[in-house]
Design goal:
heterodimer, B: about 110 residues, mainly beta, six-stranded mixed beta sheet, about 50% strand
């Protein structure tokens, strides 16, 4: 597609439930990133995928968080046993590392509210 | 660990006022620096970037930023703001060891009063 697509745009879930957030990167972008944007906290790096390499998971806040990227394209971020502190906007971005000088392209995000 | 500091959390200006938003980073060595903007209800967009060369970088919509290596700073400026510049502004830096490891500041919310 023309941009990075994320779904759902909004998600309200009960504490303790699992959620899945989806990201469709720009076609041809081999690098994909997940960030979390909390009020007053800026953007927190979560995980980075590059091609077929092992992902950089150094930003995942706990083992309740996991992500996968199938076929080098679509990515799913899964949060198990959600907690209220997981409430945030989850942003996905993609880039072409051969053109990293041009920066990342971000999706519109998924606003997650845990009640 | 690397970090990016944005000193102003919320800035309120009247139209035609001049703008300067501070950004400092903690890396040593070569870095790539970015400013992103997020208009209300929209996704993050790249405003400008610095990789090398002239430390004064021109971006879209009349914005510019100056890289001062000795101060580890990359402040964003605009001589005369407009109401449409109301948005949140994020400074970002990529690691000199990994160009794909981008870290962001906490953001500065700019409100321009008409």
């Amino acid at each position: 597609g023309a941009g990075v697509s994320q779904s759902p745009s909004n998600k309200v879930t009960e504490k303790g439930k699992d959620v899945e957030l989806r990201c469709d990167p720009i076609s041809g972008h081999t690098a994909l990133y997940w960030y979390r944007q909390s009020l007053g906290q800026g953007l927190e790096f979560l995980i980075y995928f590059q091609g077929n390499s092992a992902p950089d998971k150094s930003g995942l806040p706990s083992d309740r968080f996991s992500a996968e990227r199938t076929g080098g394209s679509v990515s799913t971020l899964t949060i198990q046993r959600t907690q209220q502190e997981d409430s945030a906007v989850y942003l996905c971005a993609s880039s072409n590392p051969d053109r990293v000088n041009y920066g990342y392209t971000f999706g519109s995000g998924t606003r997650l509210t845990v009640v | 660990a690397q970090s990016v500091s944005q000193h102003n959390h919320h800035v309120i200006l009247s139209e035609a006022a001049s703008l300067e938003l501070g950004c400092n980073y903690s890396y040593g060595g070569t870095v790539n620096l970015f400013w992103y903007v997020q208009y209300p209800g929209q996704h993050l967009q790249l405003l400008l970037k610095y990789f090398s060369g002239d430390p004064l970088v021109k971006g879209i919509k009349g914005f510019e930023a100056e890289f001062i290596k000795s101060k580890f700073s990359f402040n964003l400026r605009k001589p005369s703001v407009q109401w449409s510049d109301t948005a949140e502004y994020f400074c970002a830096v990529t690691s000199p060891y990994n160009n794909n490891d981008m870290r962001f500041g906490a953001g500065t919310r700019l409100t321009v009063k008409p």
